[in-house]
Specification:
Elements lengths: L6 E5 H11 L6 E6 L10 E3 L6 H6 L14 E7 L8 H5 L6 E8 L7 H19 L5 E6 H8 L7 H19 L6 E2 L10 E8 L4 E4 L8 E9 H6 L3 H10 L7 E9 L5 E8 L20
Parallel strand pairs: 1-2, 1-4, 2-3, 4-5, 5-6, 6-8, 10-11
Antiparallel strand pairs: 7-11, 8-9, 8-12, 10-12
Helix pairs in contact: 1-6, 5-6
């Protein structure tokens, strides 16, 4: 995971809510694009004209070159494919060709979508993967809301999306932090050019269980990030051997596995994971037959 994500751009309700969650960290510049937003463009707010369907959002997407005139460097663009406004995604991204853009794609509960929305989401999901694999974008991060909900456990109705967004954003942020500080020890190799479809998640140190935010198929690059209390790093003689043993247990003939250990002042130790693959993800929707036979094409 190499993107610094200095700029966060949220499109639509889901994207804007996640952008707001990133906004509590001072190192990010936030842009939000949606229908009915209140605020000034100079403050990163763009009130998109309402359209009746995704095709119209693409066709009628305004020229936003001036809106992004101060945007440069690494960008994380956040979108959910089931919203009509997602139809403007590629038109908006065309104004960011001078930036290193990664996409955070958030999948809703597909089973609850109407048929037309399922087709729309399915198209967006696949198109963005193809663009990422073709290196049009730096990386495509996949997050599945039902999967994140299962990780959290019981989530109340009021504040449901806030809980999910807090976990997603805090995990992204902490990994971003660790990618910009020196590790105590690390074995991370340079990421392969083809490995541009990714997810991230938590790692339960006690149970040796990975909790990914998306059920990524055919992981080829698995990376562990250990955030360990400084005193324990200095005094626990068994810790390093345990870490290496946990990492070795994930090694397969198909998966390259690496790790980094970082010193913290937290009382509790944490761990995170990132997974990367070159493979297009084609999870089935509705009662359609499995699509795994397409994965190698």
């Amino acid at each position: 995971m190499t993107n610094s994500m200095d700029t966060i751009i949220g499109l639509g309700e889901a994207g804007c809510n996640l952008a707001d969650a990133f906004g509590k960290y001072k190192q990010y510049q936030i842009y939000k694009i949606d229908v009915g937003l209140k605020g000034l463009k100079k403050n990163g707010i763009y009130d998109m004209p309402w359209q009746s369907n995704p095709e119209r959002y693409e066709e009628k997407c305004p020229n936003m070159k001036n809106f992004f005139k101060n945007c440069s460097g690494d960008v994380l663009f956040i979108v959910g494919g089931s919203g009509d406004i997602s139809g403007a995604t590629l038109r908006i991204l065309s104004h960011l060709r001078h930036c290193k853009v990664s996409i955070l794609y958030v999948r809703p509960d597909i089973k609850l979508l109407p048929a037309a929305k399922k087709r729309q989401e399915w198209m967006a999901f696949n198109v963005l993967q193809e663009y990422a694999r073709s290196a049009v974008f730096e990386r495509l991060w996949l997050v599945d809301n039902p999967t994140v909900e299962a990780i959290i456990g019981e989530v109340p109705v009021i504040g449901y999306h806030n809980k999910l967004n807090e976990l997603i954003v805090s995990t992204f942020h902490m990994l971003n932090v660790y990618n910009h500080i020196d590790a105590v020890v690390a074995t991370f190799p340079e990421p392969l050019e083809a490995h541009r479809i990714s997810t991230l998640g938590l790692y339960d140190l006690e149970k040796d269980v990975k909790k990914l935010f998306f059920p990524l198929y055919k992981t080829r690059d698995l990376r562990y990030y250990y955030a360990i209390n400084k005193e324990r790093l200095e005094n626990d003689g068994k810790l390093f051997a345990n870490i290496k043993e946990q990492v070795k247990n994930s090694v397969t003939t198909e998966t390259q596995t690496s790790y980094g250990v970082y010193s913290t002042t937290y009382d509790v130790d944490y761990a995170y994971v990132c997974c990367h693959t070159p493979r297009i993800q084609r999870q089935k929707i509705n009662n359609e037959p499995p699509l795994d036979f397409l994965l190698d094409k």
